[in-house]
Protein 1
Amino acid sequence: MYVAVKGGEKAIENAHDWLDEERRGDRELPRITPEQIDQQLRLAVDRVMTEGSLHDRKLAALAIRQARGDQIEAIFLLRAYRTTLPRFGEAEPIDTAAMQVKRRISSTFKDLPGGQVLGPTFDYTHRLIDVDDDGESAVAAEAEAEEAAAPRVVNLLDREGLIEAEKPAGAETEPADITRTPLEFPAGRDARLQRLARGDEGYLLALGYSTQRGYARSHPFAGEIRHGAVAVEFAPPELGFAIEIGEIDVTECQMITQFSGSETAPPQFTQGYGLTFGFCERKAMAMALVDRALRASDFGEEVTAPAQDEEFVLGHCDNVQATGFVEHLKLPHYVDFQSELELVRKLRREHAGRHAAGASDQSMAAE
């Protein structure tokens, strides 16, 4: 990423002061606190944590304030901080089937075991700005939590063998870690999903949308979207067994797509998968759409669309890298531009010369 530039020290210092002043805004108003951002702009915090690859609500809220609400800048700040943290081990895989569900919907089965839970969603609002939204907020009614199990929809299909079997990595297989090892192609699905989880929400949304419009010819069903709290467990080597060290909120999406079969596989449904920190439903859905599109080669499908091109998708989905490359254009390019300026002048002189010679030849031919 392009980060370094030399310039006038005093000018840069003044620019920093000006930025700080702009960030503070009207000093007659109270300074917004990270706690307020965390509580009242939760979706922004969730996105920054997801694409910043660090679950820390307070730090993410602080980064959003420091970045003046620019989420990509906040993601950059969080990722940079993440690199300073020591790593003392790896948590056990989270069990989303045991999630304390706050929202759970499926577009494939109306009567799910465990029921559908609408949860806090914009889906049924009228999308009208409430100009009087400065009073007391509503308080939702509470009910006793149900103990009923909420199995995944894919498990229901799996009982009949109607969906592709999941292929968990063996215990001896070390999962990829794209934060430590550069991404290589072809990428394993573990590395691919990590890259997509870090990927820019808008970029993935556009690619997922393209698959629905015919590029990659995919129109899946939302098998299940669930959001809630899951336990995080860690197994210290000295203990030899896992202990729960906390809970985090996640959003999980499993898309189901029909597959007509091949010489080796019968007709069945296939899966696309998305997982994010917090409540990032749009991101999780887009991620699942793109994950399925990138699995084209797994099913012998012809690769015809950008969303199926692994190098294109994974190589351009990181918004911090993309921002660095685009925004480096703001840095001084005086020498490069002077060189191109001289070249354009020379080409114009040659072009004018050829044009004048051509006009002279035509005049002589006419005489």
Protein 2
Amino acid sequence: MIVIRHFEEKVDWLFARGKIMGTSHLCVGQEAIAVGACAALRTEDYITSNHRGHGHFIAKGGDPKKIMAEIFGKATGYCKGKGGTQHMCCTEVGHLGSNGITGGQIPIATGIAFAIKYNRESKVVICFLGDGATNQGIFHEALNMAALWKLPVVYVCENNRYAMSTPVQEGLSVEHIAERAAGYGMPGLIVDGNDPLAIKETVVRAVELAREGKGPSLVEAKTYRLLGHSKSDPRQYRTKEEEKAAWKNEPIRRFVDFLKKQKAIGDDELKKIEADVQAEIEAAVEYAENSPLPGLEVAFEDIFVYSNEAAQ
């Protein structure tokens, strides 16, 4: 979680100073979900992600240097600088792509789950999605299909209370997003999204069901997006008091307090972890800044996967 937090805060710092172009959607405050859920997976399992996906990628085993290089648009990035912040993937660690379209990753995850079942593999795919995506039609179509065919997929909804600036309750006809699972005959599980241990425990149960051929689950992890929707969001739709309360409940502070009470970590060890992580992130930035831009000759590469290559 600390690696993700420092990575995201550094990306925010770089955007503010014009060192990275475009925009980015950060997951500060939601680190526990990525870490807890990915801890329930094996290396060969898959994830799909959304527009707020740096944390998912790091938690699944992505190299911060190559992720940072991709955000910089450099040739050493995971997608040779052509995917950017919203369209990164790495099959070696089972990260099959983030997606800039709201809900766009949901049918992809469902399709991957179908392929897993069709090929009689024991893998599982986790689909990370936001609360706003659950109001898209494709969410309901995909969950219906996954339940009907008992596909090995776990939908992990990060309910951070706002779909951009819209409070989640203004787009929801039930109290909890997890209640929607009942309409498709699948388990709907609610978990504290700021508690990595609770998330892991909950997702482990869902992954076990999927791996046993008992079909999908919908996990609703209740959390809070501590920063804006994107770098240009002034957050005028919520109060300073609300944000102040959320910072007191943020996952890293809570987990550190828990570890200290368990006498599992001391101040000196914590300082060393912080220093090591900061050095790792600074090295990632240096790697990205010193990497070359992709050449024009690669502009039309990696667009199609031909059938004979896919078969191999």
Protein 3
Amino acid sequence: MSLFSFMGTLEIGLIFGLVAMGVYLTFRVLDFPDLTVDGSFTLGAAVTAALIVSSVNPYLATFAGCLAGAAAGVVTAWLNLRFNILHLLASILTMTALYTINLRVMGKPNLALITDPTVLTPFEGLGLANMYLKPLFVGVFVITVGILLALFLRTQYGLAMRAVGANKRMAQANGIVVKEKVYAGLALSNGLVALAGALFAQTNGFADSTMGIGTIVVGLAAVIVGETLLSSRKMLIIIFSCIVGSILYRLAIGFALNADFLGFNASDLNLITALLVGLALVLPQLRKEWKAKQAAIKANGGDA
């Protein structure tokens, strides 16, 4: 892998670190399987791109894209909580609707941002090549968001949200308003994913109606890889593991596609993703079985 490819992979891995944080919030904190992210990722990119080409400040456009994603999360929570629609079905309904909404927002399937100002524009005069500027900017941004998210989850409100995911009945018995926490959690999760979409559109110079397909798989893979490598109870390390997992996942994909001896092509991306996610799911179980076996050997005085 060349240095240029490595920096590009690092940049995308950092951006999808935001997706991993959003997926972690729904799947791990709230125990709410949410497929809305496939649509909210594109929604964040679409809203941001449409506003930027309309001469809106890129930072305001990014914030608007993030808010649009949060609104999509609220819709999914509303379908689930108000009408008792199953988590997965509610999120699939929202995701399906968002495909059309994204086309409406952009006015066409693809919107280019090559000649328009972005959040990176104020830093382009510093003399740093784009190859380094983009990962550096995205890295600082994503790590800052990660620290803020970890601090939030350690507040009383964040602890209440985590309690809802751990045991709804117990949380309700302790006076926690469960529905409010679910609404807030899904809004925050999809807001983060939309923020990732907004950054992706600006760093890559376009927003596309199909760019969100498979986002949930990538987010899940990043969370699982991160948890496998950096298992911890400390919230800051857990959030950090989402970012690390996302970067490693992207590097593994990049390595697989660039290693000639493996024989993979760009069209094999889905197969490589499935293999990596499968491996990340199997490894913790194998490690658990190995530890149990070692403990049994030790208890029997070293006899296998």
